[in-house]
Amino acid sequence: MITRAVFTAALCISFCGHAWPADGWISNVGFQVPAVQSVSQNSTSQDHAGATGEKADSRQLSGTVVDSSGAAIAGAGVELQSPNRTALRTTESDTNGSFTISGLASGNYRLVISHADFETKEIPVTIGAEAPAPFRISLGLRSLSTTVNVQGREDDLTGIAQSATQGTVGQKELEDRPILRSGEVLETVPGLMITQHAGGGKANQYFLRGFNLDHGTDFAVFTDDMPLNLPSHAHGEGYSDMNTVIPELVQRVNFEKGPYYADVGNYGSAGSAHLEFYKTLPENFFQVEGGMYGYARAVFGASHKLGAGNLLFGGEAYYDDGPWQNPDGYKKFNGLLTYSRGDEAKGFSITARGYHGKWSSSDQIAADAVPLVGFFGTLNPSDGGNSARYSLQNEWHRQDAKSKTKITLYGFYYDLDLFSDFTYYLTDPVHGDQFEQKDNRWVFGLDARHTIFSQWFGRTVENTFGLQVRNDWVRNGLFQAEDRVRVDKIDSDTGTVLPAITQEDRFTDTQVGLYWENQIHWTDKFRSVAALRGDVGYVGVTSLITPANSGTASKFLPSPKLGLIFGPWSKTEFYVQSGFGFHSNDARGATQTVQPISDENPYPNTPASRIPLLIPTKGAEIGLRTSTLRHLQSTLSFWYLRSASELQQSGDTGGTVPSSQPSNRYGLEWANYYTALEHWAFDFDLADSRAFFTEVDPDDAAPNSPGGKRVPEAVGLVASAGATMHDYKRFSASVRLRAFGPRDLTSDGIYQSKATILLNAEVRYRITKKWSFVVEALNLLNRRDHDIDYAYESRITPTADSAFTDVFHPVEPFQVRFGLRRAF
After folding, report:
1. For 588-627, what is each residue's pLDDT tens digit?
2. Residue 616 CB partners (closer than 8 Å, separation 6+)
3. What is the pLDDT of residues 646-683, one digit of tens each?
4. What is the pTM assigned to this prediction?
5. Which of 29, 723, 741, 768 has the fewest beta carbons under 10 Å from its own?
6. How far apart are the C-alpha atoms of 208 and 190, rounded to whole Å?
7. CA of 360: how far to CAs of 45, 234, 526, in Å?
8. In 166-210, where do the E strands start and end?
């Protein structure tokens, strides 16, 4: 399976139409190859001390080296050895995969064919009175006990990937993308859109596969195997803040979609992304940037030998006001320090990360407020927040011919204090509707996996056993606020006092996952991946305000998964997948029996029903991957996903609430990457999704409407395209288009968003070998589109009437940024 840029593939065991026997295997450089069998009719069954000493003549060995699809393998090492393994001659296959070794005497030899990305094959050869006929040597990809280092989307994953929607994106592709926010490195995942509905320091809004994923629900993000998502978060379940990432230090992004992968548990139903960071940099660098709207940034990275290992360190200082009438004033600082030692076979690393951010916030505004405050205005200039995250993780791995093991331990401290106002004066016309969400936690986790490589009845088999443990010690709460001061408020409809402390809790959130995955390469054209995962969630909640809401809750969910892979035929592979996944609900909802007094419920002692702690999802997918057309990597998939309960964004509280009915989603995805010209790359990705509740939803409908079955905020059509020029006469450039929407904002479809279309560009010029200059132009068309849209009731001034209307956050206007980079 493709995770953390480690791709495993089945061992091709055919040669010249003959199958190797199932018995008698020898170990060779960390993987298994068949015991040597003679392919010559004149060969004997006994080894000789060396080749017979006849005088060399014009007899020669020749052949062609190809992969399992028949494509030529250039640069394969070809070594002729004596029977006792003494090297006699060496050469390489040419661009056509051909090789020739001339001037050979009669006798017995060994021919060893090797390549970094393929299996090594040993062939016994006997040269008699006549030279053997030319060989055609087929190499399978490295056996399951080795890794294939895939660099980016231009690499062919046929024979490697488990699905059409698995892939990887390398640093070069990340570097050539103009981005507004660090979270947009995830837009390299086809079909995924990143937006923002508040100040820059808040976690991004994510859209994928018919989901408004809010700030991370149903999309799992990992940084070097450490989860970024936060369960039972004060602002929203699965909160995932990409502001902690320095894009220049990300080596690659590996991604997969759907609940089919055993090593991804919570939040992985729509998909997951695994960010791998450099352990050693290709080059040390320092870069400064500046631009419109008060944008300034400095970033550096360096790696050096330290003893027997390598030390990498990097940092980022960032400031941005944005185009808002009330400037964001977003300040953030990021740092990373890694010490690593060893290689792929055996090694370890220790990584420390630190992030701190502080910002003001121009939150989303109602459409009827634009004449009052302007398109880039705000109705509450005291909104904003601050956040911090400090982590330490240790990774250890080893690999040999029989097994591989990887263990990651991590711990981090996290803090957020967030002030928001989404309804303005709807609840309290005197003090306003600002609220504060506070989240403070310590987290410890373990991710351990062990893989055994073996043979079952002559078939190459990989069995992986995994254990994932995570415990969050959390204190969070929801508070009524005015100008960032906690105050009591009066509900304008009922006259009820809304206490300053709406909810405050201390709790533990424990998640344990066990899984077993089995991969078998049944034939050259068929392999399977079967897995069984089991997850246990346990929470213990102490309510500091309402003792009746204290308690414990637990839930166990099994998640079977199955994938079948057929091919390749003509460089085309077909996939069939199905599986179960899940997302967690907020710990407080799992123990709550009395609703807190709030603007949504201004009545004391209102009973509440406990919600399940874990919510199952299930999905299926069929797809294909092809590289039949030269230089074109293309995938196509059709998918379905059902969720037993939907987590939706609440405009009144800023949190997520579960739906009372299940939902169904389905759609298609088509992704393409084309590299026909030496300096050019083109990509085009298209995704279309549909999302419906199984029953009519009256709660998220327009006024006086009975409701409908449409899931509000569900993303439909998503398209992205780009053209990139690499290193042509010192220039590199790219232009990128992304579009998404319209979307239903209410379950009846009465309110809909408009489409959002953005065109960005970047030009980079290498002044000297060490110096380079870059210009980014964002929103080239200067469109006044929306980053996000909602529809709900609000009141824009204390004396205005309340109105149910579109509420939006605009995209940033046209702007230019400049950067100067020095490599050393």
Report:
1. 999 999 999 888 888 888 998 899 999 999 999 999 999 9
2. 557, 559, 580, 581, 582, 644
3. 876 554 454 567 888 899 999 999 999 999 888 999 99
4. 0.83
5. 768
6. 9
7. 80, 19, 56
8. 167-170, 193-195, 205-208
